[in-house]
Amino acid sequence: MALWHLGASAPSPADDRADRMADTLLAGVVGGPSGSDPDGTGSVRRRARFHALAVQEVRPLTADAIEVTFAVPEALEEEFDYLPGQHVALRTEIEGREVRRSYSLCRPPVAGSVSVAIKRDQGGRFSTWAQTGLQVGDELDVMSPQGTFTSGLAALDGAHVAGIAAGSGITPLMALASAVLARSETSAFTLVYTNRRATDVMFLDELADLKDRYPSRFVVHHVLTREQRSAPLLSGRIDEARLRGILDDLVRPQTVDEWFLCGPFDLVQLCRDTLADVGVDGDHVRYELFTTGEPGQERPDGGRPVVVSADEPVRTIAFTLDGQSGSVETPVSADESILNAALRVRPDVPFACAGGVCGTCRARLVEGSVTMTENYALEKDELDRGYVLTCQSHPTSERVIVDYDV
To answer: Given CB 3.0 to 4.6 Å as the disulfide criterion, which of 38, 211, 229, 252 pairs with 234?
Structure first.
């Protein structure tokens, strides 16, 4: 099974090394202890760490999207082993301010590089900077891969997998589709991909390559919201009526073993609700969001300052990170998140989106109680084992202890 870059004609020694790495990844064992699966969930978790990587290539995808490939030195290959469907956080400084953003890895695992696709957001500070200023040779801090938008791919041998994506939501599904199809000669992948216009379709050539390589096992349905297609079902916004039509005529749920959804919140929620209504078991539906905010909405890039006055009630937040213990007091009136408080005393506390989407700030609640404002990253089994998103968790007891190292 070869998982080199799409379009390669023959494997090189580096490709052979990538094959061995990919076989290990798909078997669910990643990078030794740092990528082991102590929870037995089939997901890959490791301590999130940033490493400086050089930009190897910047490739245009559409008028407002680029693919950025980073060179991974051999010494860091284990740190950047990943499963298709995972993501990385990027960190840089723009106009004197630290900015972090998470992006899905869009290529199957290959030794020596990782690739992400960046689409310009309306008013987006990082995406606009990347489109206009990022060049080959620039160095960015790239976090080791994270995320549970994946599955035990060995269990998908011979399976029919379906994906629904919108816009830049295609990025993790590109890696997933390539891996699923390459791993088994009997697997199939059906993709419903919606964009405004044909010119907005990211990875158009790569999708065509997949169709050429697996003509009987890969199907893609392009839905365009602002262009007329010959099939009425594929023209217009995916609302409930159109989605039910797609499920009736194009992707029949009874034939699908696993679902992957990626896009804006409204579409993903519509798909989850509709699939549940037609009898699809929620355990076989995975989803990922890039953001839950409106276009142009400011996203937090770090902790806000909080002043602790001597005469007001406080709560104590204690945490363990990299084997070291820390604690900080937070005013009850501030309604401060655990992440924000921890960043005031440990700037290296892991986070990326700070919006409850990426899961980078996950920790286990050891003592005390919290309320979690949003959660788009943790699975039910993780919640049952006491994990919380520290960017969304606010203490409700006098003392709270969390462990980032578990």
So the answer is: 229
Model-wide pTM > 0.85: no
Distance, in Å, from the CA atom of 122 to the CA atom of 116, rounded to the nearest integer, reads: 19
Three-state secondary-structure class, residue 278:
coil
Please name the residue that has the structure tokens 């945490």: 319
Q: What is the Cα–Cα distance from 100 to 149, expressed in whole angstroms?
A: 20
Relative orientation angle of helices 240-249 and 265-277, to the nearest 10 degrees: 50
Q: What is the pLDDT of residues 39-98, one digit of tens each?
A: 333 444 556 789 999 999 999 999 999 999 999 999 999 999 999 999 999 999 999 999
Q: What is the DSSP string of 166-213?
A: EGGGHHHHHHHHHHHHHH-TT-EEEEEEEESSGGG-TTHHHHHHHHHH
* CATH architecture of the domain formed by 153-288: 3-Layer(aba) Sandwich (3.40)
CA dist list (Å): 380 to 153, 239, 385:
20, 27, 9
Say which CATH topology domain 13-143 has. Elongation Factor Tu (Ef-tu); domain 3 (2.40.30)
